[in-house]
Amino acid sequence: MGHDNSHDDVSSHVKTYLKIGVTLIVFTVITVAISFIDFGGNNNMIVGMAVATFKASLVCLIFMHLNHERPLIYKVLVFTVVLAIVLFTLFISAHGDPLKDEGFEAPAVPVKTATAHH
Amino acid sequence: MSAAATTHDDHHAHGGDHAHDHHEPSFLYKYIFSTDHKVIGVQYGIAGLLFLLFGFFLMMVMRWTIAYPGQPMPGLELVASLFGEWGTYQLEKWAPGGVVSPDLYNMFGAMHGTIMVFMGIVPLGFAAFGNFVMPLQIGAIDMAFPKLNAWSFWLFFIGGAMMMLSFFLPTGAAQTGWTNYSPLATTTHYIVKNTFMTGQTWWLLAMVFVISSSLLGSVNFITTLINLRAKGLTFMRLPFFCWAMLVTSFLLLLAFPPLEVAAILQVVDRVFGSSVFLPTGLVAGTNHFDISGGGNPLLYQHLFWFLAHPEVYVLILPAFAIISDIIPVNARRPLWGHKLMIYAALTLGFLSFIVWAHHMYLTGMGTMMSTYFQITTVMISVPSVILLTCLMISLWGGSIRFNSQMLFASAFLPMFGIGGLTGLPLAFAFIDLHLHDTYYVIGHFHYVVAPGTIFALFAGVYHWFPKITGRYMNDTLGKLHFWPSLIFMNVIFGPMLFQGIAGFHRRWYDGGAMAFKNTTQDYLWSNELISFGAWGLALAQIFFIVNVWISIKGGKKITSDNPWDATTLEWATPTPPPHGNFTFEPVVYRGPYEYNPPGTGREFIPSWEEPAGTPAPAPTEAKSHH
Amino acid sequence: MEIPYTVTARPDTGLWNAKIGVWLFLASEVMLFGGLFSSYIFLRLGADYHWPVHVLNVPWGFINTLVLIGSSVTVVMAWASLKMRKWGAYKVYMAITIACALAFLWIKKNEYTDKVHHIAVKTKDGTIIEGHFPDHGKHWINFDNVTSIKLSTRESDPEYFLESCTTPSPKFTTPAGKTVSLDDAGLASIREEAGKEPSIDLKAATPLTFKVNNSPFPPFNTIRSYNDSMLSFKDGTVINGKLTDYKMTLQVTRVDVRDVADRSKSQAWTLMGAGWKEAFEHHEHQKLEHAKEHNPEADPYKNPDFVRHALTMEVHTAKPDPSHHAPEGVGELLQSFKDTLFSHAEHNGPVITLDPKKDIAFWSNWLPKWNTYFAIYFTLTGLHGLHVLAGAIVLTWFLVVDTKRFKNDPEHLANRVETGGLFWHFVDLVWIFLFPLLYLL
Ligand code: HEM
Ligand SMILES: [Cu+2]
After folding, report:
1. Domains, chain C, with CATH or none
2. For a Cys staple, C38 with which of A91, B145, C56, C76, CB 3.0–4.6 Å?
3. Which of the residue ranges B41-50, B272-281, C174-183 would you say has the lowest mean pLDDT?
């Protein structure tokens, strides 16, 4: 990274790295702790993923220097992240939107092992 | 300045002799483990052409049983006897009495698709032409990561070798189509002593190698295009060829990983007995599998098509790339709508990621999802039409040279057009209900890839052959190659469209003559017609093979480094280009398609030619530090 | 011939080549793990069984998270030290990073080994009983009185047959009346007689006994199918005889009756004894009381989290103890963490004996075969582990082999460490998502 070449610049970052490391550890403890509390429904998943996303963005922004990167890298990453989100959303929506038709969902011959569930 | 002025001798004065300040590597490192992008390009080219030929051989065996089901195939016993006892043993196993068995048909069908797509067209269009031409066209001395480039080729080689060797496993090669859908693909060759040593598993492992190869390749292509462009070569001055390669690289980079996931998960299912792609209660015949169930076959299809639709554009964009260079050179006209084409290719690239489930209308997708995918699919036809239209308009008012490459390039336009237009109906779920998995689909996509992409690849070979070898290919043989190819391609794939509408399904080893006779009997003759077309096409290729073979050593020598009077940078190098490519530091002063520029009185102006009186190169898009 | 911009940035893009390269590579990695995570979502949404929550070893997972975070800090410190040309500090930080990578892999290996030894059985009524084989041994099927054999001649060597036949040097008669043994010469004459046929019928001179490996791990399993009177191997060989005394002994650690229609009649209690039924009822009752206290209105059985706690029971002692209950509150939670980390309390549950044919619907160890959760768990963590290994190798290369570059071209080494570090951070980043998704939620 030609633009923060000077040694002073780097040494001023060192403290930040340590601070971020500690923050990450604290949030890991929080993740574990709240996973034992029942928030009901899907809320545990949402809270857990929110904390993980927060931690992940700290890693990206500070450790991976994405807080000051070249525009070209941003372009590539934005495109990639958009595609990853497309992947997630379309997979989930495809799963959530099966063809509905009278008698379509119930198999003609009930499958034995499936009867035990729900 | 005339065209002759561009021979390399004139440029010695401009810069140091980059090419000769290193010692000569040994033969092994010069031609086999070379890191030179041109050698790697040629390696990919040879490997790809051989795979293409092999895939075509498989298809000719299949076409025999489709046309004459149950009859022994002539010559099969002779070929088997060449391999002695082992050969007769294999013949008994796969084709008793010379009659192709359904299993063999399935195996050849699956491998035809796989080899053609992953080992033939992509390595040729993207890797061979991209590797050879792209760095030259941007004035680079090599790829950004030459060693990685060699790794790409050798990973591809390992993957290809595994595909080939899998034919010799006790189970034979994979048999479940190039799509390799679970649960069938998971449970084929499943209850065997060692699931590792089966064709199905090797197919997956080979794919992991091929995928890794394309990933490394695309990282290399993109980095090179971003960072190694010559002075003055701004993004908007990049030839469309390079843009198409850039978009293709991004498709490979981002679409292949989900297929890698699918392959890995299927390996886990096969080897460790898990059920990621296997539903609860799965029974096959009388076999009740000892599995947990709970997985989902549709997950495989989603992961597969997330790659495989963009893959279609990986097959076709390099073809557009080649054609977009050949048409301006031979029509002596600039490419019409260069910018428009760039934006169209970018749009195409993006949209290609969000249309995949149009291959899955029949899997019980809900109406909302189905509507979404129909809309995006119809949308993506717009940029495709833009690309094709721009190429056609570029011909307008040109004084066209009808040499071999231009013949192939001009035939590409209507052939690809047929392929594209026959795809439109398939975008609509309720029409696809009827046409899905029929020969209509086979006809449609083969129009795109066979008389489409393959014609473009042929055109590319005729066009860049002089740069590679210093000799022209024979134009008469080229024409003898072209005309029968054009005719037979249409004899093969035209009738398939009608067969499909009549109800002929794909993957029938008897061509519909037995089980579905009620549907097919009136049209069975067309199976024979198509098969004769395939054999005719095979004969036509002899002209090409002979032409390449004799032209390498005996073709007419070129007299200029720029034999076609072209404007792009690859023609500014010595012929063949040495290691390091350029004898001077190339600087680009103008756009890539300056043919008959109005008001100059010049027939063409090479993009590297210094303008009189303006020595300063055009500004690059430099940005100041922030 | 030098490729430009390997060390210094190209002015207009502001980037050197490897920096672009590594970010592109990471973009494809995003899609790779994106594909894996969306498979996880797909499988979880579509699961027709209870998706396991908190079943992995949370304390070790937690420690591994700390290890990776620590290494992320040290790798960026190593890079910063290089930038400041502090050679000694660089070496120390890099060494710590690599040590963390190895620690991570070592912990992961231990976790995997635990899973291999963990056996889960689904009985015919849907009860799930977990535990392990008391002798840690393989799992066998015994056959007796085997006289007629259909030997497959397709494989080069009837390996399964020879491995599992416990009668020493057996002799056979072939259909043509020859007497052979299964040594090289005997096999050659058998092959000759069989000709093109895929198999040949042999009669044993004396009845044989067999002990066949019935591993739940498919690559090691040798059996295609079996019943009371015959067993067919995966290589096509079939033996006819009598299945003897086929039993599975299991030391129980956990019982799950969520899928049993009437849990008071679960097969678990017939197998483990009525005392455990009482202990379970007490356990369920306690949970219910607790839930009612918090929210008297709601029906706790509509809450999957409650059902998971109330209808599954950890079994820590050989004797039923009605007062036993799962940890509650911070203090007990920490205590149970300590237990799972440092002791093997689970090695003294009750031992039960199952009849595989009568009692068991499906069984496996905690490997991909058991359910799609473990399939995706092993795939995700396995691939992540390979990334850790690859990262460790690359970083070791920089530390050990690439030392000359520090003197000749330190900026280039710093660039290389930066690219390696970017990869390393990405590996950490993936784990940040993997840990909660697989261990906690
Ligand atoms: C030029 C000569 C070619 C001929 C005569 C030909 C012919 C055929 C035919 C008849 C089928 C249908 C087989 C069946 O459904 O049982 C087929 C399938 C296929 N072909 Fe070709 N093909 C040619 C070239 C190509 C090329 C260049 C590609 C490259 C992309 C290709 C890719 C495929 C694929 C992917 C399938 C589907 C395989 C499957 O069912 O899994 N073919 N081909
Ligand atoms: Cu598609």
Report:
1. 17-118+369-440 (1.20.120.80), 120-134+251-365 (no CATH), 140-246 (no CATH)
2. A91
3. C174-183
